[in-house]
Design a protein that fits this description.
- The protein is built from 15 helices and 16 strands.
- It has helices spanning about 5-25, 155-160, 180-190, 205-220, 235-255, 265-280, 295-300, 335-340, 350-355, 375-400, 410-425, 435-445, 455-470, 475-480, 485-510; strands at about 35-40, 45-50, 55-60, 65-70, 75-80, 90-100, 100-105, 110-115, 130, 170-175, 195-200, 225-230, 260-265, 315-325, 345-350, 365-370.
- The radius of gyration is 31 Å and the shape is elongated.
- Strand 11 (about 195-200), helix 4 and strand 12 form a beta-alpha-beta unit.
- The protein has 3 domains: about 35-100, Elongation Factor Tu (Ef-tu), domain 3 (Beta Barrel); about 105-125 and about 130-375, P-loop containing nucleotide triphosphate hydrolases (Rossmann fold, 3-Layer(aba) Sandwich); about 380-510, Up-down Bundle (Lysin), CATH 1.20.150.
- The chain is of the alpha/beta class.
- The N and C termini lie far apart (about 135 Å).
């Protein structure tokens, strides 16, 4: 074979090898839509180049941080930044093609997490399935009536402004009037009831949240509680998504057939964070500089609270949002919005707080639109006369201050009203069982405390509770089983109270 033929053979083999490589070659290429940060602000950014992005899609920045596509225009996208990662103008931005979601699992109980589901308690990672933070509220046909009470352990609420499982009850009042204390007591009272609690701290100081967590741990309530924290130092984007993320965790347990209580503390800070983001993204402001969709912001959140029917598992989600009023102005924009969304409200009065009437709930301005339908029968029998007597007392008390001479009936009304006020007072971290509350309310309705010094009532309450634990009356079982109080039940409970009062008088006589 000549050199020319050898060269030709080598060329042919080479070309055959190249052809086989060409035919077997598969390009491992992925097409990604990439944009750039065109403008950066405090907690927001504008991104250009992402033409196919969807509303509320999660975006990833080259710095490692994340953002939420919020404001879609023809030219660019307004993005809410979700962490404090160092993002700069000109940085690349990638689509994730998924909405913002959060890890949900049974492992989250007893944990402290942020609005993205990241642990803050150094107790290890949380692994589970992921749910979008924004979900449609259950349809009307999937819901059941609110008929089962959620006992708070607070006498004035359980008796006069009852809360049902699946209800939305607003707590509002000025700063430092005991709003958070009410919900902490409610969480503590859910011990051994099977109710899962979620405390969502929105824009709060770290020290204040640390105090709440410490109180829950001290009373053994963290075992069935999740704390989701977006403190005041976090970016406004995290504060904005916090209540939605917490509600997704609550819905996970609700769809498992569990009863869940969620606390939003507080939605005033949430509305302010949303206003800040909207103004930075140049959305048109309306009343008090809030954007026009501020009502939808909270209505789509609170509509997710409900009681599901048996076909859907029978779980419930009870929402207790908290908002802060300024100078007792209940007619301000955010309070009126939330009052119209919720199923009732508990108003905490600064005047009552400064007088030492705690909890400082103003019965005249507080209401539960579910009312007696979500209340045990024993309460319903006592609540009507109790509320009427207390309302009459509040009306007469103003006139009594002028030193006017009063007839005997009016004096009796004032005496009974003051007894009711004293009995309804309650120290923090001291929730009462249903039977204990019913016994005290029955006794005050029957006038057993009318002739006693008010200073003695607190001590009597402690002794009555101790005697109830010792004697275990049959009437207590009837109350727990949601039965009406029989004549013998009332006689047994009143007899116990009379015995305690007699023992106290006898002790004082020997003294």
């Amino acid at each position: 074979m000549s050199a020319k033929q050898n060269l030709q053979q080598v060329l042919d083999e080479t070309f055959q090898g190249l052809e086989q490589n060409r035919l077997s070659f598969k390009a491992n290429l992925t097409l990604e839509e990439v944009g750039r940060v065109s403008q950066l602000g405090q907690g927001v950014a504008r991104v250009s180049g992402l033409q196919g992005v969807r509303s509320e899609e999660l975006l990833r920045f080259a710095s490692g941080g994340y953002g939420l596509a919020f404001d879609l225009t023809e030219d660019d996208i307004g993005v809410i930044l979700l962490d404090a990662a160092q993002t700069g103008a000109g940085d690349l931005v990638q689509r994730t093609k998924r909405v913002l979601d959060i890890e949900v699992t049974e492992q989250v109980l007893g944990r402290i997490i942020d609005a993205l589901g990241r642990p803050l308690d150094e107790a290890g990672p949380i692994e589970g399935k992921r749910l979008p933070i924004e979900q449609a509220a259950p349809e009307i046909i999937q819901r059941a009536p609110v008929t089962e009470p959620l006992q708070t352990g607070i006498k004035i609420i359980d008796a006069l402004v009852p809360i049902g499982k699946g209800q939305r009850e607003l707590i509002l009042g000025d700063r430092q009037t005991g709003k958070t204390s009410l919900v902490v007591d409610t969480i503590i009272n859910q011990k051994q009831t099977g109710v899962i609690c979620i405390y969502c701290a929105i824009g709060q100081r770290r020290a204040a949240v640390a105090k709440v967590i410490s109180d829950l741990q001290e009373h053994g309530a963290m075992d069935y509680t999740v704390v989701l924290l977006a403190n005041g130092e976090d970016p406004p984007g995290l504060i904005y998504i916090a209540p939605y993320a917490a509600t997704s965790i609550a819905e996970f347990f609700m769809h498992l057939g569990r009863d869940v209580l969620i606390i939003y503390d507080d939605l005033t800070q949430h509305a302010r964070a949303y206003r800040e983001l909207s103004l930075l993204l140049r959305r048109p402001p309306g009343r008090e500089a809030f954007p026009g969709d501020i009502f939808y912001l909270h209505s789509r959140l609170l509509e997710r609270a409900t009681h599901l029917n048996e076909a859907m598992g029978g779980g419930s989600l009870t929402a207790i949002p908290i908002i802060e009023t300024e100078a007792q102005n209940l007619s301000a924009y955010i309070p009126t919005n939330l009052i119209s969304i919720t199923d009732g409200q508990l108003y905490l009065s600064p005047q009552l707080f400064y007088k030492g009437v705690l909890p400082a709930i103003d019965i005249g301005l507080s209401v539960s639109r579910v009312g007696g339908k979500a209340q045990r029968r024993a309460y319903r029998e006592l609540a009507g006369p109790l509320r009427l007597a207390y309302a009459q007392f509040e009306e007469l008390e103003a006139f009594a201050r002028f030193g006017t001479r009063l007839d005997e009936t009016t004096q009796q009304t004032l005496t009974r009203g003051r007894c009711i006020r004293e009995i309804l007072k309650q120290a923090p971290y001291n929730p009462l069982k249903v039977s204990e509350q019913i016994t005290l309310l029955l006794a005050v309705n029957e006038g057993l405390f009318d002739d006693l010094p008010y200073a003695m009532l607190t001590q009597l309450e402690g002794e009555i509770r101790r005697r109830l634990k010792e004697e275990k009356l049959e009437a207590e079982e009837h109350i727990e089983q949601n039965q009406s109080l029989t004549v013998s039940d009332k006689e047994a409970l009143l007899g116990l109270v009379k015995g305690v009062i007699a023992a106290r008088h006898q002790g004082e006589g020997h003294g």
